[in-house]
Amino acid sequence: MAAERILVISPNWIGDAVMAQPLLQLLRQRYPASPIDVLAPPSAAPVWRQMAEVSDVLETPFRHGALQLKERWRYARMLRRRGYARSYVLPNTIKYALIPWLAGIRHRVGYKGESRYGLVNVMHHDDVPPRPMVPFYAALADEPSAPLRKDVPRPRLSVSEEQMRAACGKAGVPAGVPLVVFAPGAEFGSAKRWPPEHFAALAAQVLAQLPDARIALLGGPKDAPVCEEVQAAAGTAAASIHNLAGRTKLDEAVALIGQAAAVVSNDSGLLHVASALNRPVIAIYGPTDPDHAPPFSDIAAALSLRLECSPCRQRECPLGHHLCMRQLEPQSVWQTLQPMLQPAAR
Ligand code: SF4
User: Fold this and answer.
1) Taking the domains of the chain in order of start, what are their residue ranges?
2) Eight-class DSSP state of 280
3) Would you say 57 and 36 are in contact if contact means Cβ atoms under 8 Å apart?
4) CATH code reported for the domain at 5-141
5) What's the gap in Å between 69 CA and the centre of ligand 1?
6) Range 162-345 has CATH code 3.90.550.10
7) E runs forming strands in 60-193
8) pLDDT, tens digit, for every residue of 127-171?
């Protein structure tokens, strides 16, 4: 009998896609011969392409937030022809649960989410106490009645030497020099951003210690203005800073992170990419909970002042002072970063 084909429907955010990767490791163990395809929005698709367990990545043609029932029905007909036997619906919305149901996929696994009775027919319940994202997604690999695993594997991505060389070449980063990546953006809102002048001061510290180093500022097009602020505030260090926000595709950003001696990031998708590539990483938290989606590289630090008002989980600081980030001084981040860079200094 041919192995049954599996379809995983991706969450919309890059960081969530990374944190869903252990689910694929567990599915691969459970169904060793089954091809696993992923249906993902174009913004997250490049991350899935860096996962060894994935056979095909299909990009969703739907607009973000739109129901587009007729388009979903047409798309489901195409999926029906691919003959999937099992699907794992990671977003909690009805509109994503509709697709495998319309495609006639027999086993449709997911959380109850928006009361998706019938659409999801192997239903897990998310009204348990909040869990970090990795075990939350990984639990879908087991039966709903199974006890929660204590041994969930870490997310992992891989990039080839060739991808890293090509990305560095395109970004103008010379071969053989230490590369430090900063991710100063956060699509969620300004409250999650460590101030640009703090990133600039940290860049100056890095370059004082490693004069040959280059610093790459990564992010999407919406992060470009904040990255320009970092570069403008960096003074003489600016010459060694490559502002690549909005100028690299996600797969190139992933390859640059794969090459990095260390990564300093706000609580955003690129943080989780860095962890999954097992790069030394510093994660900076203000309005969000560092225990919810912590970095998980072998060498990782989660920095948070844990003020009384934190985590407020607001997009903009409701108190107007943003002290959770402003009072986290560049010097104290440098004290954590410096030992991570020691291998690059040799
Ligand atoms: S309320 Fe507190 S945790 Fe929230 S953004 Fe403002 S300073 Fe940060």
Assistant:
1) 5-141, 162-345
2) -
3) no
4) 3.40.50.2000
5) 39
6) no
7) 84-89, 107-111, 122-124, 179-183
8) 666 677 889 999 999 999 888 888 899 999 999 999 999 999 999
